[in-house]
Structure formats: C-alpha cells, structure tokens
Amino acid sequence: MKIKVADRISEVQEYYFSRKLREIAQRRSEGEDIINLGIGSPDMAPAPEVIEELRRAAADPTHHGYQSYRGIPELRSAFADFYQRHFQIGVDPETEVLPLIGSKEGIMHISMAYLGAGDHVLVPNPGYPSYRAAARLAGANVIDYELNSDWLPDFEKLESEDLDKVKIMWVNYPHMPTGKNAPIGFFEKLVAFATRNNILLCHDNPYAFILNSNPSSLLSVPGSKETAIELMSLSKAFNMAGWRVGALVGNQDRINEVLRFKSNMDSGMFKPVQLAAVAALRSPLAWFDSLNDEYRARRVLAEDILKQLGCKLDGEQVGMFVWAKVGPVFSDGENLSDLVLDQSGVFIVPGMIFGSRGNDYVRISLCSPQPLLTESLRRIKHFMTATIAQS
Ligand SMILES: Cc1ncc(COP(=O)(O)O)c(C=O)c1O
Description:
- By secondary structure, this protein is of the alpha/beta class.
- The protein has helices at residues 7-10, 16-29, 48-58, 73-87, 103-114, 129-137, 155-159, 186-196, 252-262, 271-281, 285-308, 333-344, 370-390, and strands at residues 35-36, 97-100, 120-125, 141-146, 166-171, 200-204, 228-233, 246-249, 312-313, 321-325, 346-347, 349-350, 361-365.
- The chain has 13 helices and 13 strands.
- Pyridoxal-5'-phosphate binds at residues 40, 102-104, 128, 172, 176, 204, 206, 233, 235, 241, 246.
C-alpha cells in the first residue's frame, strides 16, 4: 500500500542521532569497534535511593493505574522545593509546575500550544535541533538568530528587524552545544528584550548542574514569570535520561495553556517513576559533587582529544560536552567527523547538526567512561600521526 505522509512530516527529517546511531549499530554488527563520543546520554546510574524507590513503589499494587495529567502532588512539590533550595525561587506546586515526560516532549507541547501558520519562532544558531523541528511540525516559520562570538544573542541586531510575528524565543543557558554559561545580567537583558517585544521566552535548562559552579534559573529575574517559562529535566543532572522526567515551570496561565495540548496527547507518568523522581530531586548537594568529579576528569581527556585533532577550544565551558573549533587540518566539522569515524572508529559530532553557525565546530560528549576516552585518545594520536605524515 502507498500512503502519503502528512505535509508537516515533509517539513522535518528523521532526527540526526536516530540515523547516526543506526549506522553505528550496523557497522558494529559488521564487526567494527566504534566508540561513540556523540550522544549526551549519561552512562552512570542514578542514585541508589532513586532505584530503590522505583523498586519499592512498583511493588505496590495500587500504583499501576492512570495518573493525573498534572503529575502527582508529591512530584510537583518536589520540583517547587528544588527551585526554592537551588535557585531561591518561589514556585506554587499547585499551579506553576507541570511534570513532563522529559523536556524534549515539553518543547513539542509548547510549540503545539502557541504556534501555528504565520507565527515566527526565534531559534538559536547553533542550538538544540528540536526547537526548530517542533516549530516546523507546528506549522510555524523558524527564524534563526546567530549567536555572536561569545555565543550570546545580539539584541540590537534582533531589534533592528521586524519582530511583530515572533511569538516564541528559545534560549538555553548553559548553552548546548557551545558550553557557554549565562553571564551576570544576561537573563535580565533577555527578560527585558522579551517583555519589550511581547515574546514568550522559553528557557530550556537541562545542564544547570553539570560542571557549573553557579547553577541558575532564568525565573530568578524578578517579574520573569510574566514573560518566561522554563523547562527543567532530570535526564542529565540525575543520570535519568531513559526515565523521561522533566517539568515545565511558569505562571499558572502558561501551565494551563500547555496542559490543554498535553492532556489531549498523553497521560500522567507511571507513578513509581514519579515517586523515584521525588527521591532524585531531594538528593543532597554531595550527589552533584561526585557526578561532577567524574565529569571533570573526563573533560580533561576530551580536551586532550580535541587538541590532538588540532582544534581550538574555550576552557570556560560548562555542561556535559566539549565544543571546539576545527583547525586547518580539516575543511570543517563534518570532514573531521567523517574521517575520524572512518579511520579511527571514533564518532565525534559535527557542529553543523546544530545549525550553520556550527559548521566549523565539533562536539564531544562526556558520557563515556575514562577508559573509553583514553582509548579514543590513543586512536586519535595514531590517526593524526598518519594524517600529518600523508600531508
Ligand atoms: C538543550 C537540550 N534540551 C533538551 C534536551 C532533552 O532533554 P530530555 O531528556 O529532558 O528530553 C537535550 C538533550 O540532549 C538538550 O541537549
């Protein structure tokens, strides 16, 4: 049978990683030993209390039914307490928190709740590809805003253009893929820009706790809830990417608007997952310390790999990746990525998948254990010796 897909599907391609992981799996099945330094899926386990809570809660026969669309009250309270404890922000657990099946689903829900044909969306270039894809699926026009040499938006340039049709601006600091952290006063400028231009500011904040000495929330700016909403995720900070837990935090009207779409699309998460997420959100600060000790050691190795490849990088990066500019040995990030994969069996992400501004860059994830990073370094030294000898 031949069946035509909906027009909206022709607007997007299969997610880059979905295709690349399939290719890597195929090559592995043919006997190739490939190290994947691409995807940001934490390889370490969640805290033992979290696993134990899942086990305990799953054994309760009353926990297996449909759950509330708004999430269980304990989870909403745990998110509100988390915001108070880590960011000193008051959030009403009854009305200002919406638990989500990960922040990626939140990006789609927000897009479906606010965007339609004729609406414009500001999306960072480079940036997380889902903002663009979700906007297109919702039928809106994507307007890339190029980040400047400091990986920040250029407000003057943006305001010199017609912003009348812009409804949403996506922002994400600590920024993925560049590792840029929000400088002091930057969130205030963002909120003022969005307020002046009547734009809903959507802040995606999954990396606040990774290698960052000052985790922060955009909602700490006074008055920001009038114009901004924030996505929080347990995927990275608690090693729970496969569990699919996050939340949207914002004012009551925004939460209800997004819930109107979401409640038509899915149901509440499995209760034991929600209860285990409560345990994660209550983790002591020592949890982040031990996580970051490991990531710090990995980052040294990742930086060494990139330096061996002749790349240039900024040592101030935060988050779960290292981003680097390709040196003269390679024509661009894609060329480096292809050659390194083919000749040394190490997969490094080309920056172009995050937008044209990433063409000359590559990204290494810190989600591989130190022995694999050390082995990658060995292979890459070998590869570079051969490459330089040939040139
Ligand atoms: C910037 C950014 N936002 C959102 C996500 C998705 O996170 P989640 O697992 O909460 O859907 C990712 C995952 O890589 C990301 O890098």
